[in-house]
Amino acid sequence: MTKQPAPIVVGYDGSTGSQSALRWATAEAVRTRAPLRLVEAFELVIITRPTPGHVVPLEAVRTARQTALDAVAEGIRLHHPGLTVDTTLEGGPAARVLVDAAQDARTVVLGSRGLGGWSGLLIGSVAVQVTTHAQCPVVVIPHDQRPHAHQGATVVVGVDGSKASARAIDFAFEQAEDLHAEVVAVHTWTSPFLTYDEGASMLQFDEEKVREEARLLVAESVAGAAAEHPDVRWTTELASGSAARALIRRAESADLVVVGSRGRGGFTGLLLGSVGQTVLHHAHCPIAVVH
Question: Where is the UspA domain (predicted)?
Answer without folding.
Answer: 7-142, 154-291
